[in-house]
Design goal:
eight-stranded mixed β-barrel; two-stranded antiparallel ribbon; 47% helix; binds ligand C2E; binds magnesium ion; Diguanylate cyclase/phosphodiesterase
Length: 291
């Protein structure tokens, strides 16, 4: 059926389209009225270095629980916040929260934090994020900002300039969800990134699809040639772990090792997993059981 446009021109909506407009409006309203400081929180998913069998870092993942809307997926509320102009406030809150948890972590564990490219078009937004890290007293070398390729393409020159600035401050940079956007290889080479994250879409069917396995192999080679770290997302099974290990990839993030965890659980996970080597010589010597 038709709805009246403000100029009186009828516009046709499918029912599905109407639903998604209504959902987006509800989220937008929720985001403005929400007590974001109270309702936003962060979970941490371990990134394992399988070559050393230890937690190398955690990716901070945004969570929003609203009393009316319930638990909202980050994919939905981040997109809405980007469009509605609240992404800046939201990111500042999340970064502060994430850094608070990080205060308890061992120094050799890094944090990956997702940045919306919308923020990178504004020098003041960027500067604010950098001072939040400074105020927390966390070394920039312990933080990897993740950005997605699709986002970069929207405002290429400005974003690349910001990325150079971020690197100059001592932060690392990862290109997230690699393979799903449209960066050409020459773009990747020009970007001041330090790592790639292979999107989980390629890992999902690796066991069944030789084509996906070839893509993963090609990205692994690309990383070796460009001297980039390579993180594999979405490893869920032993078989997938075997396949990526066969390609000499050893930074793994996925449900096989752990789902995203609440801060205290994340810390406990790292302490447990990273303790075997370090504490081995702190253990009391074996007791003499001979008589
Ligand atoms: P992402 O940065 O690629 O994060 C990884 C997503 O994959 C997370 O979903 C994580 O829970 C999920 N994942 C990890 N391992 C597995 C696995 O083995 N199997 C499956 N099926 N999924 C796995 P999540 O938390 O729903 O986040 C979705 C996306 O939302 C993120 O994708 C990121 O693009 C965005 N996002 C999350 N937090 C933030 C944030 O603070 N700021 C911004 N700008 N975006 C964020
Ligand atoms: Mg990410
Ligand atoms: Mg990702
Ligand atoms: Mg992803």
């Amino acid at each position: 059926y038709a709805k009246q446009h403000s100029k009186g021109v009828p516009i046709f909506f499918s029912e599905q389209h109407e639903d998604s407009i209504r959902d987006a409006l509800a989220l937008e309203k929720g985001l403005t009225e929400a007590n974001l400081e109270q309702e936003l929180y962060v979970e941490f998913q371990p990134i394992i270095d399988t070559s050393q069998n230890r937690v190398a870092g955690f990716e901070a993942l945004a969570r929003w629980y609203n009393p009316v809307l319930g638990q909202v997926s980050p994919v939905d509320f981040i997109t809405t916040a980007e469009q509605a102009g609240s992404i800046r406030v939201l990111t500042n809150i999340l970064l502060k929260r994430a850094l608070e948890s990080m205060q308890d972590w061992p120094e050799d564990i890094y944090m990956a934090f997702n940045l919306s490219a919308v923020l990178l078009s504004s020098p003041t937004c960027l500067q604010r994020l950098i001072s939040i890290v400074e105020e927390a007293g966390i070394a920039p070398s312990r933080i990897v900002f993740e950005i997605t390729e699709t986002m970069i393409m929207q405002d290429y020159d400005r974003v690349i300039e910001s990325l150079h600035y971020i690197r100059k401050q001592g932060f690392s940079l990862a290109l997230d969800d690699f393979g799903t956007g449209y960066s050409s290889l020459s773009y990747v080479q020009k970007m001041p990134i330090t790592r790639l994250k292979i999107d989980r879409a390629f890992i999902k069917d690796m066991a069944k699809k030789p084509a996906d396995r070839n893509i993963v192999r090609t990205i692994a080679d690309l990383c070796r040639n460009l001297n980039l770290d390579c993180v594999v997302e979405g490893v869920e099974t032993e078989r997938q772990l075997q396949l990526v290990t066969d390609l000499d990839l050893h930074y793994i993030q996925g449900y096989y090792f752990s789902r995203p965890l609440a801060p205290t659980a994340a810390l406990a996970f790292a302490q447990f997993m990273n303790s075997n080597t370090e504490t081995a010589d702190q253990l009391p010597p074996p007791r003499d059981i001979s008589f």
